[in-house]
Task: structure prediction
Amino acid sequence: MSVLAADSLEGRRAGSEGSRIAGRLIAEQFELAGLEAVGDSGFFQRVPLRLVNTSSGRPRTRSLSSWAEFDSLPPAERVVETNVIGVMPGSDPELRGEYVLVTAHFDHVGIGRPVETDSIYNGADDDASGVVGLIEIARALASAPPRRTVVFAAMAGEELGLLGTRWYVDHPAVPLAATVASLNLEMIGRPDTAIGPGRAWLTGYERTSMGPEFTAAGLAVDPDPRPGQSFYERSDNIAFARIGIPAHTLSSFGLHSDYHSPDDEVERIDFDHLESVIAVAAEAVRLLADGPAPEWKPGGQP
Ligand SMILES: [Zn+2]
Result:
């Protein structure tokens, strides 16, 4: 967490050197956790992007549909990002051909408008906390891998429009038709006073059987207390839900005022809380990978 959210990574904006360093750190941790690499270059899945100049003077980063399109661009407009993807093969010969996808985005918004003297938007809670969760869940499950194969994907460019996830949906590392569930970790580093410390809420809780099954198993998971904020639609899970995979985001974001500000720093992370939520998330992933595949409720799919 302290490396991912360090000032030296300059807020991990997609396309920046800080984002590249973060990606390499995550790949190294995935390898140490014993995951198998399933990107197109080891743990890295390269994502072609285009830098477009705008009248505001700040270039925008856009998604592309193919490498052929990338190759046709002038070199100055080409940017390559990477998703970081590793798998833990399932222990059950019958079920290891089915996949549970666990995601978190590792980019943040970079350097921005200074607040007092600080212009680095560290993104400790958003979403270094979720990335730490990915790594720790991989470590926690490694000693006794669950029955289905678990795919761990740290996604690039969420803040610029789900860029990494959109590429993954078109170029999946494992078949989407065999991906039975997806759990996204987003902002789990600080407790939400609406539900209390050590607990997290699930976006779109009422849409599938996933959340009720977590609750029935005694996990500290609640329905999203603020559906009006549309968090279900605001992170990487939505791209998978739209193609039919039961996909939710687990979070404990209590609308703290450091959201997308230079004050989203490591010093403001509550590590006791983060550790508890990661333990909950690890149990949730094990349940998804060992138990019945979640199903959509009538009318639940967006
Ligand atoms: Zn986020």
Notes: The two ends are 33 Å apart (CA to CA). The chain has one domain: 7-44+79-290. The domain at 7-44+79-290 is CATH 3.40.630.10 (Aminopeptidase). The pocket of zinc ion is lined by residues 105, 126-127, 158, 186-187, 235 (CB under 6 Å).
